[in-house]
Amino acid sequence: MLTFVTLGCYFSFWRPKSTEVRWWEVGGVLGLFGAALTYNRWRLNEWFRHLGEGDALAEEGRYEEAAERYAEAQRFVIRPRERAISRFNQGVSLMQGGDFEGALAILGPLSRSFGVREVPSVAGGAPLYMALLHALRGNGPGARAWLLEAQQREQPPGALLLPELLVLLREEDLRGAEALLARNASAVRASSQGVRKALLVARGYVQANLSLGVHSEDGAVEQLALLPGDVSFLGARWPRMRDFLQAHGLLRRPARPPRPPVVERRLWGSWRVMLVDYYPLLVACAFLAIFIGLGALARAVGPDARPDGEAGLESDSLWLYARMQESVDTEGHHADADKAEPKPTQPAEVLEAADVHREAPVDARGVAAKVVGKPHQAKPVARADLIRRLETCTRELPKDEWETVSCLNELAALDRPRAVEIAREWSRAALPPDAQSAASALVRFPTAGALEAHLDSLGLTDRALYSLGDVKVGPVSAEEVLLYRGRAMAFDVETGVFPNRHDELLHELAALSPGVLDGFRFEEYPPLEAEDEAGGGSYQLVALGGGVRYEVTAANYGDWYDLASVLGFLNSLARARGSDARWVALKEEGQVATVVTGPSAALSSLVADGLLLVGDVEESRSVGRAYDEQILRHELSK
Questions:
Q1: CA of 53: how far to CAs of 83, 121, 322, 332, 426, in Å?
Q2: pLDDT (tens digit, 9 = 90+) per residue, 137-162?
Q3: Domain carrying residue 629
Q4: Please, which residues have CB within 8 angstroms of residue 29's CB and are 6 or more apart in sequence?
Q5: How far apart are CA 322 and CA 15, in angstroms?
Q6: Kind and range of the H or E element at 409?
Q7: Is the whole model's pTM more than 0.70, yes or no?
Q8: Pairing of strands 592-599, 581-585
Q9: Per the domain annotation, does 287 fall within a domain?
Q10: Per mean pLDDT, which of 244-248, 274-278, 566-570 is the most reliable?
Q11: Averaged over 546-553, what is the pLDDT?
């Protein structure tokens, strides 16, 4: 990807104008492809080396170190299947080491991820180990639900038998466990060595508690070389099993000297595997090289589309009001300028403005790109004419709220007193949220910098997450200033994926108030896939920190966040920490939610002054769903 971006930037922007493609440019393209291929080969070697070291550590019973090595291997993955293998081995090692929470946090999302389908053993093994973990924790219903999913993925009968047996043992149904073993004796004998060890230990536990003695048929314990520590994870959360393992000397494995791992690199690190497994990438690179060459050739023989620019007022202003200029020209305001042949100007670089998804603030150039597009030609505009056109634009409210508010923001940068007068006129009418916030800020703080000073006095200081840099049109409303200061975040409440990853949203929102919820680790436990497809189930949101576990239930709205539960959870955690920080959703008209955070008194003051408009946290989802349903009805009516 970096190779593609580098080549695209070079041939689109930096490369000097020329009538021919130079030989060293072709060599550079081929060299970049070769470097990318070599780099991928090195990453594969490193991934397999760490994976082999983790396997060796796990074989020696050093499960914590093995899990760390598997986690390190994930830094070198290239494809989804390699990540799935690394995470699966890490989760299994954590389980064998007794860290059930860590194993659940890894194996749960892994069992439902898309990339795991490329590795059938992991796709089937992940839900099986989830069933085993829930069984060992005493969660019978959860274990049976995961066991059903593992059965659908066609796991071996012996492996499926172990979680079911452990559920019966945790429920103290020893007779049922004995009958289950008797019915599946052939499955026990046909199971893999690791599963068979655990089954034999479980059968010994049943016989010991029923006072039946050692089963006469089972000389297989000696044949399997059952060593101390092989199945110690069975007693990690099960006191009676731990006592049984301790009594039979199976709880701990004596320390053994580490041995160097045996890693076979020739298969994964060979050029043959690179060429075979990565042939789609190589084909794509070849087509890209051909495309670049043809594009350069067409550019060399075609007309020059990059004339030099000419000095004028701010280019973002020219972009935003190019169509206004056309209307003014028809009225005769620029008759003299029209007599001469206007020289084309090259506008400044456009910032991508993706609908209304504003994860970071954008300046007027991004708004211009969305509203009017990039004009082929534009003429310099005098400052007085530009101010007059901006005033005309502000009269269009509420015809186009976003563009009109942008006009007011730009007018404030050029002539703030006039912008304040217009804001006072706006404030006498009913306004949309964005316009109301901008008007209130200008009326309350007519002097430039006064709003920022007021926010500083409330403790909402600048965290400098976003630098204004070369932005010519600064923020006007309190919402925009807080976005620039890193005290607020705007995001789409529709995720488009399952599960929704509420844990990532919790982490991002908590980071807006540093020091308040530091040390918390957020986790999400989604509903089962079958429940989600049926439109039921719920999410469990967990916060771990300070030795305490906090948990809340979030509704399952499909691929939409339950924002009310997220904000309520954060505010409850802040109260538990003794902090007055709060998270509040602002009023929006689309499916983009804006959340601000800060001291409760500061936010209350801004709301009371009309600088922030608090909205219904469910409104963004309702608007988005209504729009989706409208589109669906339109498509069905065709």
A1: 16, 20, 63, 79, 68
A2: 888 888 888 888 888 877 777 778 88
A3: 487-635
A4: 7, 289, 292
A5: 29
A6: helix 401-414
A7: no
A8: antiparallel
A9: no
A10: 566-570
A11: 91
